[in-house]
Specification:
The protein is an alpha+beta fold and 626 residues long. The chain contains 26 helices and 19 strands. α3 (51-68) crosses α4, α10 packs across α21 and α11 packs across α17. The longest helix is centred in the middle third of the chain and has 33 residues, at 364-396. The protein is flat and about 110 Å long.
Amino acid sequence: MLQYIKKYIKGWLLGILLFFIFISFALWGIGDIFRQNTSYIVKVGKMKVSRDEFLIEYQFRMNEFNKNKNGFKDVSKNERIRIANQALNNLTNRYLFLNMAENMDIKISKDVLKKQIFNNEMFYKKDGKQEFDKNIYNNIVFQSFGSEERYLKYLESEMIINILSSHFSFMNNYPINLSKKIYDNINERKSFEIASIDKIFEQKKIKKPDKKVIEDFFKKNEDLYFFNERRSFTYIYLDTEILRKEINIDDKEIEEIYNQRKEEFLIKEERDIQQIVFNNKNDADKAFEMLENGKSFLEVGKKITSQDLEIISLGLLKKDQLLSGFAEDVFSLENNQYTKPIKTDLGWHILKVTKIIKEKVKPIKLVKEEIKKELLLDKSYDEIDSIINELEDELSKGNSLEDIAKELNLKVYQKKLMESKDFLNEKNLPKIFSNKIFYKDIFEKKINDDNFIQELENSFFITRIDKIVPKTQKNFEEAYNDVFKKWAKKEAKKEVIKKVGKFKKKVEKNNFIKTSDELQFNSRITDLVVKDELIQQKLPKNFVEKLFNAKKGKILELDSDLIYYFVKVTSDKKNVFKENDYNNLKKNIEQEFSIDNLEQLLYVMKKKFPIKVNVKLFNSFVETVE
């Protein structure tokens, strides 16, 4: 998570245009999710993060994800939910810094903002002269933010976050002598020959003996075999996912909703627009005169302002995406017509319409699944609330869970004599068994305790303890499988000890690998490896340290739970200093050091500026996201 914070907390929109993100909402179809809800998605301290900001951040993350996936294909719902959570986390972290800035009264002066703008190469002329171009600046600011005021506000917050996060990120001057010692330690290389016995494999080779052998073993170790406290219980469980499968939505109902909410599915008129921005009225009038004399829009743009097609073209826009100063004028034009010069705070504009896509309503087939999902979601929440209310009424009458289930047409489930470890070890259990609240309810309740409904985020359950059996000795039949495993493990251990003894005798006179092969050990040769490579091969860290401290020719052995190892050291330590490798290591150490600083800072900020997520709104997004 902290790597994500480090990467994205600064410059989340730097180098991209918000305009294009807003346009892409239409492609993804996610804008309608919040249309009728203007509430905030998360509150950080006193600051509220709007739904629009969340959608922008989500879309930006989706675009980044799809760049790596080479397109928009095969993005699973789980992947989208993960990205939605990333977007939410990133926004909360940004707003933690903005809260800190407000608390410390940190502001950016107009002169600093001006310098930042003038040094941004995005606003330079295209002729390679590295000069600020006001026309380009006006176009990009308009396309991206709609007004200079909104851009300056964004820029100020971006710089504040950059200043604060960088301050803590760069407090990372890790001592050079320590980093060199770390480099020397992890870059040591040695060669080894390794022989090993797989204890699990040896145990699997043990065949079942006569039953009496196992029974005699059981009698000698009877106290080892017992049941921990076991509980039998009855429960009712229901969630919105189960309910959605039982709810039927017919086409008529979808059609009714579609007709009631047609305005929501309206695709507003769009126009492909070109724009030339001028610094003064004289240039604008001169350009208008050239257009009237038959010059092309692109030709005039290049002649008067040196603006090429990339700058002139705004793309397809809806009316409400244009500045109010000329939106009406542009949308009153016919195709291939242009406006007279229009003055705004950004300068003088002439705009031309090159294409008109008329307003239309999305066909029902395009929104049918969206409506159906919303209806299922709403109905499942309503239904579960209704069932909970009816359940409470039935419980107040003293009815049993069985009678309640029958009355309300619910399923009642029973489990017989479960130990607490069964919740982890038993396969194919219902998903509610992984819920900590459910687990606690089962193993802390007593027989005849009052039954209470436990409401979870999208579900509820109610339990009744039917029987509690204390710790009990197992009889032979109940313990048979456990007894055989212990007996087989003991027999396998005897075999391992025999093989180890044979290896030690033979290796004194013979080649290490040859001895290993003769006794059918697993063997391998590692040539000049670093410690991490042995650790990745499942050798314990402390044993690896012993190997690197051992002299050439020494044979060390390790009796671990799963494998018995013999390792022969076949070379002395070798350590070649490489400047690039050292610099990369030093950089990584300092990055980790700075991440620790950020982690501590975020922990403190979260305490000072509490985070409150609008769970209902966020869950609505998660449930509906395609």
